[in-house]
Amino acid sequence: MKNIPLLLMGCGGVGRQLLQHIVSCRSLHAQQGVHLRVIGVCDSKSLVFASDVITRELNDQTLYEVCRVKSNGSSLSALGDLGECIVYGNSESKRKVMDIAALLGKATGLAFVDCSASSETIGVLNQVVDMGCCVVLANKKPLTSIMEDYDKLVSYPRHIRHESTVGAGLPVIASLNRLLSSGDPVHRIIGSLSGTLGYVMSEVEDGKPLSEVVKAAKNLGFTEPDPRDDLSGMDVARKALILARLLGRRINLDNIKIESLYPDEMGPDAMSVEEFLASGIVSLDNDVQERVKKALLNGNVLRYVCVIEGSRCEVGIQELPKDSPLGRLRGSDNVLEIYSRCYNKQPLVIQGAGAGNDTTAAGVLADILDIQDLFP
After folding, report:
1. What's phi and psi for 355, nearest 5 deg?
2. How many CB atoms lie under 10 A from the CB of residue 41?
3. Is 195 annotated as a binding residue?
4. Per CATH, the architecture of 2-168+358-374 is what?
5. What does the pLDDT look like over 289-329, one tens digit per residue?
6. Annotated binding residue at 73?
């Protein structure tokens, strides 16, 4: 049986779902000759880890208890007596994490799995890659930090996996890597990489006001608590930056042209969420509806997409043919069109659910299993 020690950073929706996937897949992984040995879990305030990280692990009952405590909104420090486990507070957590990385990195190997949404993990990840550890990411921020941080993370390309940073469980990164490693240059990528904005644009296409669509999306749980986090386009921009850097573009977030669906005067610093939904967004309805009508007159539809082509990398609303893969998009799916030498006239199209804790966690789990050959 091959044992893969892993340490999970981040116990939000994706992190908890990953732990549940690991437990539920025990028999399947045993048939494959693999055992995922969770030696530690940390949130922003605490770390819980096995008393002997070389021989022990957090058992499945403990993992379920971690999920229960975190789903209640508590810190890991709220965990009670867990027997063979030790809980550290915030002040000592980082030091202990580094001690574990130094102990296991070169010896048995260790996978650092970042399911947080924090930029505070960047410093830790940059250090552990030099200790022989592998890194699996759902968190986009380490890959969209400054180029120096990015270069450090990808300096051992076999040791990093980050499929879930772009399209949840969709094989976007893997497909691009296969094209690039086979010498098939990718010259254009255009995609709808936000389930929320995909839903919004396909609904306004049917004549519904933007304000009503956004409110409905929020009620359905499609948006963040503040819908402006989605409407700003920043999440799509981070995904576009990851793809652009994968293609060799040495750019940062501020090099990307980003179209927000609301003006600065309706931003979080100027207006509450309640004010934005009650009166702010309503004033945007006419402008969006005019753009929809103009596109329809041209036989096109509007989609919120990222475009990467040559030196161009931008995110915003584009007019696209109705009969294109992106033009046919309905609902909250992600769609990516990739154009290369081999896929020139007819692009390689990747489509499917691009969001959700379950789908994202499944993508992370697949990434962990993909690096199993690096472990003794």
Report:
1. -155, 170
2. 28
3. no
4. 3-Layer(aba) Sandwich (3.40)
5. 999 999 999 999 999 999 999 999 999 999 999 999 999 99
6. no
